[in-house]
Write a structure and sequence with these properties.
Blueprint: H1 9-20, H2 24-33, E1 41-51, E2 56-60, E3 69-71, H3 82-101, E4 116-121, E5 133-135, E6 138-140, H4 182-211, H5 215-221, E7 223-232, E8 238-247, H6 262-275, E9 278-281, E10 287-290, E11 296-300, H7 311-321, H8 348-360, E12 383-385, H9 393-414, E13 422-434, H10 439-462
Antiparallel strand pairs: 1-2, 1-3, 1-13, 4-8, 4-11, 5-6, 7-8, 7-12, 9-10
Helix pairs in contact: 1-10, 3-7, 4-5, 4-6, 4-8
The protein binds zinc ion (3 copies).
Length: 463
């Protein structure tokens, strides 16, 4: 926790003022109630209840500190709000786990017997970058020379003998940025959603081929369901982690009506990923052929013998990526304007990616790209799924929203004079703003969040 004497005088003043107010405990309670969210939404409004006797009772934020109620911002990015991103990852895990293991969210437990594969599809190389790698004896040199050391056409080394630390800022940056294929890199991010779509079609075709069925016959007996998460690698290119499962085509999560196992599915995924291609137009009129990288990983998921990837592991692993984003590159989560372009505080590699994306955006085939420059050209969803994979994030959120509204209503009722059964009659809310009112409030909320984390950790340690 930051010592109070390191804050500016005004912040200290704000802290003292807040802590000295008679409604401080109530304010602290609200901060805790919204999970110590970093930028809570401030709502103003009232809820009206009617008792069975017909008597009307009202809860209003007029009686709250600053006349507002604080609710979570709901941002999934850990860099924006640690608390809400943690909650988002939890929701993702629920969704992923339901589809992998069943027994919850309307998915039957028998889903465990369906062929299920955890797959990672990477991007190809656009030029050598600094990297960490390991061999049997531990961390190894970045890019050792093979044979006689050779300079690139720009007179720079093509090798790097450093053993990089995990936090080395050179990681993910090209060995020679002039050799690096920036347009190809941006084209991959921009077209990655279409490449994924073609991949899912290719998986169906490969499975039909493996089972000796026509595409139409296969479609009548089997459906490929999936959930995928896009993750940015250090070099700024997306790759996909996915859980891919086979079901019957109906709506009730029955097993596929063909004889295939998870190993067949893994084989179909490998074939499809290796063969799928997308030819795109580049500004100079040439055609660029996009494909997935050679680094492809498929693991069959099953809840059988130990040592295997279980549904729980796979769900946890993917959910972890759901909170990462391009923000890790220092680009923020808003559109980049032409005015902001020259003043970005990012490294040379990200700077060149941004500039390349901006230039490509001028070209007809890349219309709309300029709106996605802050995402290094990736316009897809960070997490998406086929229709029948499991429940939706919206449904999980809805459950919780309903839960929160109940909580808010209950809370409002506590403040009312009567314990009688009441009916919610009117609920009116208006938006009052985002974030804490002062830097002092933010500092207090952050230190309360840190204390809450320590308490949770202590409880875990004691257990
Ligand atoms: Zn938040
Ligand atoms: Zn290196
Ligand atoms: Zn070079």
């Amino acid at each position: 926790m930051t010592p109070i004497n390191s804050f500016p005088a005004q912040t200290v003043e704000e802290i003292v003022t807040r802590a000295g107010r008679p409604d401080f405990d109530r304010w602290a309670e609200q901060v805790a109630r919204c999970g110590h969210c970093s930028h809570p939404v401030r709502l103003r409004g009232r809820v009206q209840h009617r008792a069975v006797t017909g008597q009307r009772m009202t809860y209003s934020t007029d009686g709250e500190p600053d006349r507002v109620l604080l609710i979570r911002c709901g941002n999934r990015r850990a860099a924006v709000c640690p608390s809400c991103s943690y909650e988002y990852a939890g929701d993702m895990w629920q969704l992923l786990y339901a589809g992998a293991a069943g027994g919850r969210k309307g998915v039957p437990e028998s889903i465990r017997s369906h062929p299920l594969v955890f797959a990672t599809l990477t991007a190809p190389g656009f030029g050598p970058v600094h990297t960490t790698r390991g061999d049997r004896s531990g961390p190894a040199r970045c890019r050792p020379t093979k044979g006689k050391p050779r300079l690139c056409q720009h007179g720079r080394p093509t090798w790097c003998t450093t053993i990089h630390d995990e936090d080395d800022s050179r990681l993910g940056q090209p060995i020679c940025s002039d050799c690096y294929d920036y347009p190809g890199h941006i084209a991959f991010n921009w077209h990655a959603p279409e490449l994924w779509r073609r991949f899912t079609i290719a998986v169906r075709r490969a499975l039909a081929h493996i089972t000796g069925l026509t595409a139409a016959e296969f479609g009548r007996r089997c459906r490929v369901s999936f959930v995928k998460v896009a993750e940015f690698q250090r070099r700024g290119v997306v790759h996909f982690h996915a859980l891919i499962r086979l079901d019957a085509p109906d709506e009730d999560y029955q097993p596929p009506q063909i004889s295939v196992d998870a190993a067949d599915l893994a084989r179909a995924i490998r074939q499809a990923a290796a063969h799928v291609r997308l030819t795109v137009e580049m500004p100079d009129g040439s055609g660029l052929v996009l494909r997935f990288g050679d680094q492809l990983d498929t693991q069959t998921v099953n809840s059988g013998p130990t040592g295997q990837l279980t549904p729980e592991h796979a769900a946890r692993y993917i959910a972890k990526y759901a909170t990462k984003s391009a923000e890790d590159f220092g680009l923020g989560d808003r559109r980049i304007t032409p005015e902001a372009l020259p003043h970005l505080d990012v490294n040379d590699h990200v700077n060149r990616l941004v500039r390349t994306a901006w230039q490509l955006g001028e070209h007809g085939a890349y219309e709309g790209l300029r709106r996605w420059v802050h995402m290094i050209g990736f316009r897809g969803h960070f997490a998406s799924k086929s229709r029948r994979y499991s429940t939706t994030l919206g449904a999980i959120r809805g459950e919780r929203r309903a839960y929160r509204q109940r909580q808010a209503a209950e809370h409002a009722r506590e403040l009312l004079p009567d314990e009688q059964d009441t009916t919610l009659v009117v609920s009116r809310w208006e938006f009052a703003g985002v974030g804490y009112l002062t830097n002092g409030d933010t500092a207090l909320a952050l230190s309360a969040a840190a204390r809450a984390r320590e308490q949770r950790q202590a409880a875990r340690d004691a257990a």
